[in-house]
Design goal:
This is BRCT domain-containing protein. InterPro entries: BRCT_dom, BRCT_dom_sf, CellCycle_DNARepair_Reg, EF_Hand_1_Ca_BS. Pfam families: PTCB-BRCT (PF12738), RTT107_BRCT_5 (PF16770). It comes from Cucurbitaria berberidis CBS 394.84. The chain has five domains: about 5-100, BRCT domain (Rossmann fold); about 110-190 and about 465-570, Rossmann fold; about 225-335, BRCT domain (Rossmann fold), CATH 3.40.50.10190; about 630-720, 3-Layer(aba) Sandwich (Rossmann fold); about 735-865, Rossmann fold, CATH 3.40.50. The radius of gyration is 31 Å and the shape is globular. The chain is α/β, with parallel strands linked by helices. The strands form six sheets. A four-stranded parallel beta sheet has the order 2-1-3-4. A four-stranded parallel beta sheet has the order 6-5-7-8, covered by helices on one side. Helix 25 links the parallel strand 23 and strand 24. The longest helix is centred in the N-terminal third of the chain and has 13 residues, at about 30-40.
Length: about 850
């Protein structure tokens, strides 16, 4: 991008338009360049008053140029329908010789695709239309042809012609699967592209290993606690901090400290001295204050300051201003805003633990849990109600599944705190974990909900231009209003991303309409005062109607954005005899060299057809072949230490030992002692060798794998307690070969202890089928099992199977009596004998690897009543 072309070739482009530039985050050189470019195009610059941090002539401004939305007049500008754009908008408009759509350059954090320019490869037509519509709705841009401006190339494999062209031209666009956009939409945030990047997307690699940890999210730095005094955050070192060039945080500002801070006179004097040194002052009257500092969202001063539109924050926010010297919105970082005195209603009954978060991220979540009114526990126990985790690959998550504890991502806690009300777990956004993704990377991106604070704490707010809010709301499509999958726990089809037929919910309500592009062509190129804000918004709304309608149509389509069931264009003409060949599958794993940047001009659409038909693989460094697949459970060395876990697993992989969570295919199971966890019990169906933790200790210490026979698991106490000999069970598992429960259909109640999914996995790994029982006899079927005497290896472990017994796994609870009665009707209907059993029956069969029955395991109404 050449400066001469931008300035000299675009005279008059900004004629009659006025601009204010927010200097935060801009270097002196770039600031002057933006001012020069605007002036050269006949634009008017209204100066920004840096000491005050405000725009005095805001109503005269047409465009505010800012890197972020974090400046005092941001929300007031939205109320007045003033465009807020990033500096890149100025550069892009001058380069294109026309005013660009300001919405695609908005610094609004809700438009999480606003720096994305996508180009779609040879993907199904419906998926392409839906993805393009979604990117536009989230503030991104669409490129019909491949060019250097494209940031993301959406394709299924490297054989796509546009991928071939991007490689040959050494373009810097990231080549990702459509699944990336789908998962961004589900969580309402822009997540890392790493697991979705071609040629070897991690989400399609079964043996991908541990999910890598992330760096501390910049959104939570210096914002991890609402009460820094009691968290030992140093203060004195900030006294002599130099104020930044752009805004002196306390210049011409009057601050008031709330009584609930309980500050000592010494600390109050320190604060007062620093504020006065920065050009501000301290007052004890809220009507005279510009800033009000307090601990809790209560009291007449808090309400008055909030209603009058003053800046209200806590001590954590004050410390941030002192440290950085730049004004920031106290609602942007949630722990910078006063907390509710009694927490979030309903949270007082919860006990919350955290998994897979470390360092500042863990401190941030711990303090937010406490501020919400819930009890935080460092140790995860069976009486916990919630587990907040960045991904589900952890021991705590497995234990939570067994204990029936709700597993959620941090968005549930952040949204609940932002709105000061408990968000429902029925929203799949809070229980969805994108594959191979650490959600810690998007921590702290949620802001305090301004409208919720208005309604709950100061309902008679006199915030200006409130009536214009309806017009402003069209700027953003909230992530929560977007259609998402019905299933919270989706499994990835490792053979073909396109043929994944996972169902989605249809839209149940009208989606909020995104703000249309505000192209300033012709008569629209006028000063802001020439037309009313309402008329301007309504007159431009229809411009985006086709994109919006297409996006809503495609999102309602069965399968949603990517798994819509449509085939590639060339596949639609394939002969049906070739139906067995999956044309949409992701190509075999490839490796490409990093593409360097070159000076070539834009790639034209004509060049796409000239792409090479093949792409040569770059040489890969050879990896040690896998000798053993090991499943580990209850390993204390890695609890709450993901960094050590990642390093240890990498070293073990170099030795040929692959640590996996897939209990369907393992050679070794490692544990400190035999345990009744889902992973341990399910893995027994693989007939693994059971080893103690000393096996890992030896391997990591000596950098070689020891003989497993020297590190066998000591199981005497466990065997006596459970009446099982594990060595015999492993021998029977070798005979069974995952067929012990073949042709079995076992029913399980929804609220059974440990969770339905636990028993479903155990039954399925042994060859059976597990069906959820909700007492609906018309929706399920059952049939007698054939006694397979021809299969001698398995049949000897099924000798006690009577063939006509129908099992229901349940808990001894009076609430289940109605379900039991309906189950007996089902068995009678299919000429079978009902048997309602405790969970112990299933656990014994899976651990012992043979079918056995003990009358002690049977449940009935009389048994439950007698126990009570």
């Amino acid at each position: 991008m050449e400066d001469v072309t931008m300035v000299e070739d675009s005279p008059g482009l900004f004629e009659e338009l006025s601009f204010t530039i927010i200097p935060n985050g801009l270097s002196e050189e770039r600031l002057k360049k933006i001012e020069t470019d605007i002036a050269a195009s006949n634009g008017t610059i209204i100066p920004f008053d840096a000491p005050k941090g405000r725009i005095d002539r805001l109503k005269e401004v047409a465009y505010i140029v800012s890197e972020t939305s974090d400046f005092p007049d941001y929300y007031r500008a939205l109320d007045l329908l003033i465009h807020v754009v990033k500096p890149a908008w100025v550069e892009a408009s001058l380069q294109a010789m026309k005013v660009k759509n300001p919405r695609t350059y908005s610094p609004d954090p809700a438009l999480f695709m606003n720096e994305v320019v996508i180009c779609c490869g040879n993907i199904p037509t419906g998926d392409k239309e839906a993805i393009e519509g979604g990117v536009l709705a989230m503030g991104g841009q669409i490129a019909p042809a491949l060019s250097k401006q494209v940031t993301h190339l959406i394709a299924l494999d490297l054989d796509d012609p546009r991928c071939q062209l991007a490689v040959s031209k050494r373009l810097q666009a990231m080549m990702v699967l459509p699944h990336w956009f789908d998962d961004c939409l589900k969580v309402g945030r822009r997540i890392s592209e790493r697991p979705y990047t071609l040629p070897d997307p991690e989400i399609l690699i079964v043996e991908a290993g541990a999910i890598p940890s992330t760096r501390t999210s910049p959104q939570i730095r210096d914002a991890t606690t609402p009460d820094p005094i009691h968290d030992s955050i140093p203060l004195m070192h900030t006294i002599h901090s130099e104020a930044p060039r752009a805004i002196k945080a306390f210049a011409d500002k009057r601050l008031m400290f709330g009584d609930d801070l309980n500050l000592s006179s010494k600390l109050l004097n320190i604060f007062t001295g620093m504020i006065e040194a920065g050009g501000g002052s301290v007052t004890n009257k809220v009507t005279k204050a510009d800033i009000y500092i307090c601990n809790y969202r209560e009291g007449p001063d808090y309400i008055k300051a909030s209603q009058d539109g003053k800046d209200v924050g806590n001590l954590g926010w004050l410390y941030y201003l002192i440290t950085h010297g730049v004004w920031t919105n106290p609602m942007r970082r949630m722990l910078h805003y006063p907390r509710p005195r009694r927490g979030i209603p309903g949270f007082e009954k919860y006990k919350v633990s955290i998994s897979s978060y470390t360092g500042e991220a863990r401190v941030y979540l711990e303090n937010m849990v406490k501020a919400s009114g819930a009890e935080f526990t460092k140790t995860f126990k069976q009486d916990n109600t919630h587990l907040i985790t960045a991904h589900k690959n952890s021991e705590k998550c497995e234990a939570a599944a067994e204990w029936g504890v709700d597993v959620v991502n941090h968005l549930w806690l952040e949204d609940s705190y932002a709105k000061c009300r408990e968000m429902p777990l029925t929203d799949n956004r809070y229980t969805y974990f994108p594959p191979r993704t650490n959600l810690g990377e998007i921590l702290g991106q949620t802001e305090i909900d301004r409208d919720a604070m208005d309604k709950l704490f100061f309902p008679e707010s006199r915030r200006p231009a409130k009536a214009v809010k309806a017009a402003v709301n069209v700027n953003v499509v909230p992530a929560s209003s977007l259609p998402v999958r019905k299933e919270a726990h989706e499994t990835v089809d490792h053979s073909s991303p396109v043929t994944d037929k996972t169902k989605r919910t249809k839209s149940t309500g009208n989606m909020q309409t995104p703000l249309p592009p505000r192209h300033l062509d012709g008569k629209e190129n006028l000063t802001p005062g020439s037309r009313g804000a309402k008329d301007r918004a309504l007159s431009k709304l229809h411009d985006a109607a086709p994109d919006i309608a297409q996006f809503e149509k495609e999102m309602k389509r069965k399968g949603g954005v990517i798994h819509g069931g449509r085939r590639r264009v060339e596949d639609e003409n394939e002969d049906r005899s070739k139906k067995g060949k999956d044309r949409d599958s992701v190509a075999s794993k490839r490796s490409i060299d990093e593409v360097d940047e070159d000076g070539e001009d834009e790639v034209t659409e004509d060049e796409v057809t000239e792409a090479p038909s093949r792409y040569k693989k770059a040489k890969k460094s050879k990896l040690t072949p896998i000798k053993f697949r090991m499943l580990v459970t209850k390993i204390e060395r890695w609890i709450d230490n993901s960094e050590k876990e990642s390093k240890d697993k990498a070293r073990l992989r170099e030795l040929g030992l692959f640590i996996t969570d897939d209990f369907k295919k393992v050679d070794l199971v490692c544990a400190p002692q035999p345990v009744r966890t889902k992973k341990f019990i399910a893995a027994l169906a693989c007939a693994p060798t059971l080893v103690s933790t000393s096996y890992l200790d030896y391997a990591l210490k000596h950098d070689k794998l020891p003989p497993a026979q020297k590190h066998l698991l000591e199981a005497r106490d466990f065997e006596e307690a459970n009446s099982i000999r594990l060595t015999e069970a492993v021998e029977r598992a070798k005979q069974n070969k995952h067929r012990l429960l073949k042709d079995w259909t076992i029913f399980c109640t929804e609220n059974v202890g440990g969770g339905f999914d636990t028993y479903k996995d155990i039954i399925e790994v042994n060859g059976g089928k597990c069906s959820l029982w909700k007492g609906r006899t018309t929706t399920v079927t059952a049939s007698k099992r054939p006694l397979n005497t021809s299969d001698t290896e398995v049949s000897q472990n099924q000798e006690e199977d009577e063939g006509d017994i129908l099992y229901l796994i349940s808990d001894p609870d009076k609430k289940e009596f109605a379900n039991w009665a309906k189950f007996r009707e089902l068995a009678k209907k299919h000429d079978m004998n009902p048997r309602i059993v405790k969970t112990e029956w299933m656990l014994f069969v899976a651990m012992a690897q043979y079918v056995h029955w003990d009358p002690e395991w049977e449940l009935s109404e009389d048994v439950v009543k007698a126990a009570k």
